[in-house]
Amino acid sequence: MANVIDGKSVAAALRLRVAAAAAGFSARVGRPPGLDVVLVGDDPASQVYVRNKGRACEEAGMRSTIHRLPVDVTQEALLSLLDGLMVDERVDGVLVQLPLPKHLDEQAVTDRVVPEKDVDGFHPSNVGALWLGREGLVPCTPWGCMRLLDEAGVKLEGARAVVIGRSNIVGKPMAALLLRRSATVVVAHSRTKDLPALCASADVLVAAVGRAKMLGADWVKPGAAVIDVGINRTAEGKLVGDVDYDAVVGHAGAITPVPGGVGPMTIACLLENTVRAAWRRAGLPKGELTI
Ligand code: GUN
């Protein structure tokens, strides 16, 4: 039976450490770390995510402001809001909730968030820093996955890791993070041949596909660590991952459940990134930030 990695409790512990660091920041700088979230339109899932992000910030003693823009907002108006946030001293982190409505240029929008405030880690400068092994802000979801692997005591050095999915938000940064830890990394995607056999060769398997219960028992090597990034809703309205949990839990070495695995870590890592951004912007000594 696999070690079931409890993302909820790992995230709660991380949020406590973030709250302590946020309190330390506030005491030294005279204001709390601040996150500004921009939400365009009224997509129900995005509304929930954004509300949860705001609430988590407040619980950690941070300031958070949500900017709600109409679905037909112009590109100019959105960029002009971002430009204002970039020069606002009290704003440490800025996040534009994706996806954006079709008429907006997602790339131009994410590029407008300066690297120092880019708590999503989407700016080309932060992406480059990640691949070069330099300091920068790392995308929250893969960063949360790494924390869960470490928490479960999974050995990464020399391990064979397979990441399914090549998105800029999860698959690519996940591959960079695993490589940085000396895993041997394969990035699989929709055109990959013999995907089940490839996955069955992995010591560490990260699924970020977006297809309910796609990975069955024969996709998972006995004893492997399985990280399930998928959040899919079934016809009955139930939340399930990309992994067929019931089929896999019996012989994986470690596995994240859905819900309660990767999901709670993403928000905790967003808070962590915001405090890191605030700390760096204020010029506080790096060694004194203990998260
Ligand atoms: N939409 C889905 N995931 C993310 C994320 O990590 N950041 C942002 N900004 N939008 C998202």
Structural topology:
Blueprint: E1 3-4, H1 7-29, E2 34-40, H2 44-59, E3 63-69, H3 75-86, E4 93-96, H4 106-111, H5 124-132, H6 140-151, E5 160-164, H7 171-180, E6 184-188, H8 195-199, E7 204-207, E8 225-228, E9 232-233, E10 239-240, H9 245-248, E11 254-255, H10 262-281
Parallel strand pairs: 1-11, 2-3, 2-4, 5-6, 5-7, 7-8, 8-11
Antiparallel strand pairs: 9-10
Bound molecules: guanine.
The site of guanine has 8 residues, from β4 and α6.
CATH-defined superfamily of the largest domain: NAD(P)-binding Rossmann-like Domain
Major sheet details = 6 strands, parallel
Strand content: 15-25%
Number of strands: 11
Description:
It is a single chain. Strand 2 (34-40), helix 2 and strand 3 form a beta-alpha-beta unit. Helix 2 (44-59) packs across helix 10 (262-281) and helix 6 packs across helix 7. The chain has 10 helices and 11 strands. By secondary structure, the chain is an alpha/beta fold. The strands form 3 sheets. The protein has a 6-stranded parallel beta sheet. Strands 3-2-4 form a 3-stranded parallel beta sheet, with helices on both faces. The chain starts with a strand and ends in a 10-residue tail after the last helix. It is globular and about 50 Å long. It has 2 domains: 29-114, Rossmann fold (3-Layer(aba) Sandwich), CATH 3.40.50; 140-263, NAD(P)-binding Rossmann-like Domain (Rossmann fold, 3-Layer(aba) Sandwich). Bound molecules: guanine. Guanine is lined by residues 95-98, 120, 140-141, 169.
